[in-house]
């Protein structure tokens, strides 16, 4: 969040949006644009060199998905950014699917592991491999959500949204200790799921 933007200003704008104020979305966008850009920049920083989606394009595509949810009951700024993290996950996954479909008809999928999700490893991956990692993670996250929805949301907030443990706890209405435990358990679950898929 931009230092000049007070958290209550975003929460107030979200309240106006819930109340149906006609100019609420126009008020909200300049308040959240800087933070959305930071989240998008972080996500694209994990992408391999040669990624065709720019920070601005990711923010705009995520924003369009958020506009589609203008009736959503966003409680406050942290909840909004958790929803934004989900929107960015969907944009990145859809982009990876399009990339895979364009390469030789979507063939030659590579096996991946959760180890490749570490920032230092991801930066060295080729674009094709990064698309495979992201799609494998998305698939594993969907399966985790069926098993434990909260753990999946923790991963989404932490990995895709760049939220801190405290912000994730606030967004999900749990304690920071719960987020810490869920993050450890979720990473173990995802590691096993992705390892099994790669076998």
Q: What is the domain tally? A: 1
Order of helices and strands: HHHHHHHHH
Gyration radius (Cα, Å) is 17 Å
The portion of residues forming beta strands comes to: under 5%
Task: Tell me the layout of helices and strands.
Layout lengths: L6 H12 L5 H22 L9 H13 L9 H26 L16 H4 L4 H21 L1 H12 L4 H8 L3 H23 L1
Helix pairs in contact: 1-2, 2-3, 2-4, 3-4, 4-6, 4-8, 6-7, 6-9, 7-8, 7-9, 8-9
Structure description:
The protein is an all-alpha fold. Helix content is 71%, strand content 0%. The chain is built from nine helices and no strands. Helix 2 crosses helix 4 (77-102), helix 7 (149-160) packs across helix 9 (176-198) and helix 8 (165-172) crosses helix 9. The longest helix has 26 residues, at 77-102.
């Amino acid at each position: 969040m931009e230092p000049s933007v007070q958290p209550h200003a975003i929460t107030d704008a979200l309240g106006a949006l819930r109340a149906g104020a006609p100019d609420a979305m126009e008020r909200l966008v300049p308040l959240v644009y800087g933070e959305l850009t930071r989240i998008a920049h972080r996500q694209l920083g994990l992408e391999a060199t040669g990624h065709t989606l720019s920070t601005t394009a990711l923010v705009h595509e995520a924003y369009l998905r958020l506009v589609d949810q203008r009736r959503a009951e966003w409680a406050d700024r942290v909840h909004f950014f958790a929803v934004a993290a989900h929107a960015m996950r969907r944009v990145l996954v859809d982009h990876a699917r399009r990339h895979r479909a364009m390469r030789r008809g979507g063939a030659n999928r590579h096996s991946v592991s959760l180890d490749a999700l570490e920032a230092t490893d991801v930066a060295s991956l080729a674009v094709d491999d990064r698309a495979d990692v992201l799609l494998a993670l998305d698939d594993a996250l969907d399966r985790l959500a069926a098993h434990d929805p909260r753990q999946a949301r923790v991963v989404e907030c932490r990995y895709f949204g760049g939220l801190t443990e405290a912000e994730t706890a606030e967004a999900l209405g749990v304690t920071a200790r719960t987020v810490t435990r869920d993050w450890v358990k979720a990473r173990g679950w995802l590691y096993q799921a992705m390892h099994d898929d790669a076998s």
